[in-house]
Amino acid sequence: MTAHAPVPQVAHFTLKNGLEVVVIPDHRAPVVTHMVWYRNGAADDPPGKSGIAHFLEHLMFKGTAAHPKGEFSEYVASIGGQENAFTGPDFTAYFQQVAKEHLKTCMAFEADRMTGLVLTDDVVAPERDVVLEERRMHCDTDPGAQLGEAVQATLFTHHPYGVPIIGWSHEIEGLGREDALAYYQRFYTPENAILVVAGDADPAETLALAEETYGKVASRGEPPRRVRPLEPPSVADRLVTVRDEKVQQPNWQRHYLVPSCRTAAEGESEALDVLGHLLGGGQTSLLYRDLVMEQKLAVSSWAYYHGTALDQSRFIANASPAPGVSLEALDKAFDRVLAKFLVEGVDESALERAKTRLVADAIYARDSQSDLARWYGSSLALGQTIRDVEDWSSKIEAVDAEAVLAVARKWLVGKPAVTGHLLPLEAEAA
Amino acid sequence: MQKHAVVSSPETAVNVKPLVTPRGLIVWLVESYAVPLVSLDFAMRGGAAQDPPDKAGLAMLTASLLDEGAGDLDSQAFQRAMDEKAVEISFRNDREHMSGRMRTLVKNLDRAAELLRLALNAPRFDEEPFLRVREHANARLRHDANDPATLAARAWRSNAFPGHPYGLPADGTLETLAKIERADLVAAARRVIARDKLVISVVGAIDEKGAAALVDRVFAELPAAGDLETVPEAPFGALGRIDTVALDVPQSTIRFGRPGLKRDDPDFIPSLVAAHVLGGHGNMTSRLFREVREKRGLAYTVFGAFYALDHGGFFYGGTTTKNERARESFDVASAEIRDVALNGLGEEELEKGKTYLIGSYPLRFDTSLKIAAQLVLIQLEGRAPDWLVERNRQIGAVTGADVRRAAARAFGDGSLYTTVVGKPEGF
């Protein structure tokens, strides 16, 4: 981290009822981002109830006894605030961005719906239809998204990461009020939540406001436990193919099972970040230069290490073939680039560029209170600490060529993986 | 360096300093030292509306090539130079502008400025990146060839603006991209990249002197004037018609719209308020959201908004619903549009809409990137820096009578031109 870059003074508290509080001051604009993160996500959906975490996220906007249907959203709209929510595999989060004087009211509303949700069948049924439309729009009309789901389901044969966050249609159709309330009562507790306030907020004042609002939510004693079946080591290479008449541009992808920031040995997660950038971060990366510029096998190519997961995670490479190039040719070309990388080693100037880019991203993130809120919130929801977030840049700077080659050998080269092929229908005849 | 009055907007906490540089360029500066960054945004008139019909996509390709080699640096050297200092430089185009953005850590400002200067003053348009970028653009077109939202938007535009540049696909087609040659890009850049239709903003850890020097270094040596085609006023075709594009998917993607008001129309602001209450983006309390999504579960997304271009304003909205209920979804949405056209807004929803639009304005200014983008937008609209204050004053002054009058003019009888992609039932 550059010496002159003032690091935001992040405050971290825990209320008596177990709720964690993080305050990230940024006084440039009179605006705050208020987020609540719950340490449960789609991977905690009970078997047969896929999509319940996400469905409940929708239903959380349906009102409480104190604030019936629509009152919270009406309030946020009436003050010109933005609000939304999202569900990931490992967490669910709700947020509002509002002028700072409205922070306390948002906290009161959000604390109220932590335990006060009221659901009736007449709001649950249309919202289930909304979720089915969401699934149709994002998955069922898009062969690329269907391949993504199939690859994920193949990479994770046992762990619930293999199930789509939004759920499978036939299970969404069966989700009801009782399922939602059971899930809600299990996970929506102060011990399971993290409050993040970023922006024009003072830590001590914010803590006092949190005590007045969230502090009144009764403690449940213990945080809920989430126990997931872990993915066994991969032993099989798998090829997943989706053919669809709508496809006119084929796509190639390769997914490896790798450790996440939570499961990796010391330094491995950061080395995988750097490896991802060297292999496939932008136009100077190995994949782009080889596949796109030199061999002209592909029109685009990238790679990425997805480190933010509670359990195992993914390293992904992707390429769109140039006209006339088969996906089998890209299979071979990717393996060749990876093998060549191991033989030739790491170009020191490329390593420096990759690290410079990754460290700069951490500084660029400080320009945005909502980006910072998401970074800290997601990290804590995965069980990381404030210290982990703040040390990330120096750990990236510490990655050397040896560490990058070591994770490439240990997790990618010659390891079982899932390859995805997206193809048009007519290729079937060939 | 001349100075104009500094405009402080207490609501947004933004102090805009409009400066005239030693070389006579205008830049709006916001100094902010909390994060060691500098952002520069700019825009020039141009954009897809300048594309010849048989070479649609020319403006897109031209903008895409600007970071693919300049001066002594070929494409790979230019990209590497950006990477070495984590400098971000990007160019894009919309219907009527070519615009760009630079972001850098303060310590790398000198290098960033030099790279941006080269990109605009000495772009190479080498054959290798030209062919590569065009092939990538082709791949994107093939990727989206059967994407329902892309198909719906393209079909809607071409029928809504028949024979007008607004009806052309800004990203071109496989046929038009194939007709574009390297020389076309060179000529297009010469016509567009100039000082006469240029607006600039700088935000970040930089003072007035530094900002003026940065702007002069990048832009002062550009040609004084561009050479743009005159774009005629846009006609609006096919009002009242519904076109269906068959696609074998379980859901119908519906896009509808009609002519609207232009930005300089006195009823433009009231029409924006009406559209926000009707179906504003991100408005989870809008009429369309309530009627289509919340009450009936017909769709995940539904929206409607006015868009003001230089040569025509229009209303554009849409939703996506399973094929079996597509007609119901469309009927519910068009009934709400008709109701606003005929009756304007209720007193309470009008007040709520106004307080939302006023209260949400500061959220457009919470990062350097967003501030820089807003300041370019405001300049493109021909506003003075006091628009940061004036905008909310004008919205606050909108009355029920204003909305009724504006809605009657902008929505007329509520009739729409509509495109549906999918296998919709009932159309």
From TrEMBL, chain A:
InterPro entries: Metalloenz_LuxS/M16, MPP/UQCRC_Complex, Pept_M16_N, Pept_M16_Zn_BS, Peptidase_M16_C. The keyword Hydrolase applies. Gene3D superfamilies: Metalloenzyme, LuxS/M16 peptidase-like. GO terms for molecular function: metal ion binding; metalloendopeptidase activity. GO terms for biological process: proteolysis. PROSITE patterns: INSULINASE. Residues 21-166 form the Peptidase M16 N-terminal domain. PANTHER family: METALLOPROTEASE, MITOCHONDRIAL-PROCESSING PEPTIDASE SUBUNIT ALPHA. Belongs to the peptidase M16 family. This is Zinc protease. The lineage of its organism: Bacteria, Pseudomonadati, Pseudomonadota, Alphaproteobacteria, Hyphomicrobiales.
Automatic annotation (TrEMBL), chain B:
Keywords: Hydrolase, Protease. SUPFAM superfamilies: LuxS/MPP-like metallohydrolase (SSF63411). It comes from the Bacteria. Coiled coil: none annotated. InterPro entries: Metalloenz_LuxS/M16, MPP/UQCRC_Complex, Peptidase_M16_C. Pfam families: Peptidase_M16_C. GO terms for biological process: proteolysis. GO terms for molecular function: metal ion binding; peptidase activity. Residues 179-355 form the Peptidase M16 C-terminal domain. This is Zinc protease. It comes from Roseiarcus fermentans.
